[in-house]
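Box 3.1. Reading complex inputs
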Amino acid sequence: MKRIAYYQGCSLEGLASEYDISTRAVCDALGIELIEIPDWNCCGSSPAHSADPLLSSALAGRNLAIAEAEGCDVVMTPCPGCLKSLKGALETCHDPQQCDAFREILGMPFEGRIRAISVLELLYKDVGVDALRAQVQKPYADQVIVPYYGCLLTRPPKFADFDDPENPVSMDRLLEAVGVTVPDFPYKTECCGATYGVTRNDIVGKLTGRILDMALRVGAEAVAVACPLCQQNLDLRQAQVNRHMNRTFDLPVVYITQVIGIALGIAPKELGLDKLFVNADFLLRSAREEEPQAKTIG
Amino acid sequence: MEHIHTLSIQNTYDADFIKRVEEASGQQVSKCYQCGNCSASCNYTYVYDYPVNQIMRLIQLGQREIVLKSRSIWLCASCQACTTRCPCNIEVSHVMESLRIMSREEKMVSLKDIQLFYDEFLRSVKTFGRVFETGLLPVFNMKAKRPFGDMDLAPLVLKKGKLHLLPSRIKGRKEVAGIFERLEAFHKKHEA
Ligand code: SF4
Ligand code: SF4
């Protein structure tokens, strides 16, 4: 397998640490070599986009330039927000009208040959659903999980260039491959409130509340996500959501890499399952049943 | 929310505005035929002062001040639903982003706390090279005069061992600060 540059981004260094360790653990189990971009910096996220698109491109560009210098031709990031910035930098770099300004502000050599993808794209396209199924050691028995994609993974379609913008299925297929039951979920791409957790958590309360509510209605035991911001809004802020909406949600919100990791036989601790705010031990149900003692009884 | 005088809208008409928005965003706002798809897709309409399709119409009508002072442009989450569904292929979300930048430049920002949060975020990036989540929140709370914002989350985060007391400073901090400085110099040069 080729060497893939790894850009974890700031969220995965802090509140989303379990997304980082589960991504690394799953890639390791699947034989994918990740090379952490040395001395990476923040991509600037929405604040940079809202201040100056060139700032966003140059901040993300520094990471891409370092990755290129390391000899990588693909960079993978688990965070859709970071992915947007990395792809934006590549777009700016190849835009004849902005290219010179971009290079002047970036101030370091960069060719722009590298390609940026999400961890979801890596698992779905580069590894593939069948290859993943073949690696499963502890298939799930009866867990019901809905995939929540959020807004940026597939949108806007021309830019994201991945899956279907209105009804994405990549996570559905990956979850099914490891034995999870996946109901249709109408709110797959509805926005969760994004960065307004801090400044306007009433908005997050309402939008996230709707998503959790729909998940329950279709019979889900948990929501699977591929974005640190979505996860924070749905999991860390679930108590705030309950307060705003006068509800009593107690729904686990797990990273897709954690769900896959358990099925690959990786220990829960190595996937940071204990770092989630709403307890997600239900994932281990089938794992326990698959143990030898349980089999001899039956 | 600015009051619109529907009968004398020409008094606030800025002939140049649509051209400037189209140049800044690279989008042809003039193509919008008010189908309303963008607003129907937007989860934030309920907190906007003008739904996003009306923002598009107000740009066409040259209503610069109303648009740049609107709350809508600062509450837009850049979720791209509008862009995905516009039948005229206008990148509506991109237009909203350009409007945010213009409202900064023309000192017309309506929701100062959101701008403040973004500015503090970028200050953290410029200083450390990365965002320091734990440090950002108290500084923002203090400056936004909301001392207890999100404090209910602190014990949860602490219990999970996710509260970092020190920022991770990268070695290339100067390189990152250099990006901010070169950007400023670039804009000064082009304004002159
Ligand atoms: S979807 Fe496009 S054409 Fe329709 S109102 Fe919105 S911007 Fe105008
Ligand atoms: S990008 Fe902004 S305006 Fe467009 S649908 Fe999303 S929140 Fe609404």
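In summary: Residues 31 and 53 of chain B are 12 Å apart (CA to CA).
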